[in-house]
Amino acid sequence: MLELPLALYADLDSGLMAARTRMIGAAVVLLGLGAGLGAGIAFVFGRSAEAGLAAGVIVSAALVVTYVLLMISLIAGSGLMALSRARIKVENDARGFPRRSRIVAASWVVAAFVGIASGFAAATLATMWVQERPYQGAVQQTSGTVLSWDDGHRYRVFQLQYEADGTVRIGEASVDELDLTVYSEVGDTVALEYPVEHPDRIRGAGRAAEGRDTNRAFAWISGIGAGVALACAATAVVVDRRRPLAARP
């Protein structure tokens, strides 16, 4: 489990095109296997094959990302351990005290893994905060009617007619912000919400509450992850320092 990701990293770090091709090919094969397995499981249980395929791809992609993160964490952990030992003047005692060295190494790897994951969570939290900033403040709900749509953007953009502050308005929102689909038609209605101070900013009703809950969850994940990473790093340093006197240089 530990040697394979290190070997993959060494292969990729060689900079050869063949190494990159092998890495990309392995990821594609894993995604394909996940898609086929998901579709097969869905077929066996009488579910939609498309949904099973999508679920299989998502699970495979999560495994690929996790394995890459493990690979990076092993390298980062070994680097942090070497840096820590150089600062506290600890020599490599893997032969004399292999169990102690494994605990220290594992603690640094876990610290790196959780720290990197917490960094991603914090970056996601910051991105979502920026996205939610235009919708901060009191929110009012209403309903809108589809007038038309435009597919000239990344996502389909719907033109909606709605009422805000006693005034009939026309606004736009993309399909990813609404409880609509690409199969929605002119005349369909949808629940909307808008900031009281900016009634021109519309999106699907309930998104403000969902955004607050998601931000709170990512904040907890980021904070707990940072605490766990610091605890693991501190454990590694303490265990390295509290060696038997015979092992001290």
From TrEMBL:
The membrane-spanning stretches of this chain are 24-45, 51-83, 103-130, 217-239
Task: Decide whether keyword Transmembrane is in the record.
Answer: yes
Q: Which UniProt keywords apply?
A: Membrane, Transmembrane, Transmembrane helix
Q: Which domain of life is it from?
A: Bacteria
Q: What is this protein called?
A: DUF3592 domain-containing protein
Q: Which organism is it from?
A: Cellulomonas marina
